[in-house]
Sequence to fold (229 residues):
Amino acid sequence: MKVYSSIAVQNVVEALLPRFEKETGARPEVIWGTAPMLIRRLQGGETADLLILNRVGIDTMTKAGRVRPGTEAVIASSATAIAVRQGAPKPDISSAEALKKTLRDARAISYSHPDAGGASGIYFAKLLDQWGMRAEIDAKTRFPPPAGLCGAFLVTGDVDLALQQVPELMAVKGVEIVGTLPGDLHMVTVFVAGIEASSKKVAGAQALLDLLRSPEAKALFKAKGLEAG
Fold:
């Protein structure tokens, strides 16, 4: 069984796989990436049994007839946040103006390159464009590789701030969340699972989807910084 999944839910899916394997005897092959990366692969001819994408990604696949009717289910949602290295002073991000100042004062920052397709990177780049700060901030930005973790640059001391979805920041040891984006800038990504229409392993895909909506999964989503669906 093959699963194409967003990296934002990777920690939870990986934590649930041992139970799934024990109960079903199946060991899924999981392909991780941003939703746009995975969609490009699917549109290029690849197939999967279970898709775990953001809302836009699932809608795209549904319109293309790639999602089995009646199987779509919201499993979690995640906010975009800013983090610092553990023990570092937490800067002021309480308002848009405070966030602008914090970004300008930072020696270096990290966020996902918008071309990589991550929701937080696309959103933040548009925000910087609106503020007229894109060139200024990008000049001191370390971009992770596609599907990479921005928080890794905090631990090494390469940057002062990292912006990404909460579970992706929490996946890096030695990182502290400062907070989510303030006020009207607050941004949440919804993650949806669905069985691919061409799947020949529908029962196994449904079993994993059901596990992702179980009480155990909901507790894990909360522990990893997501809201359960």
User: Anything to note?
Assistant: The chain has a mean pLDDT of 96. The longest helix spans residues 10-24. The domain at 79-185 is CATH 3.40.190.10 (D-Maltodextrin-Binding Protein; domain 2). The beta strands are 2-6, 29-33, 50-54, 73-85, 109-111, 161-165, 175-180, 188-195, 227-228.
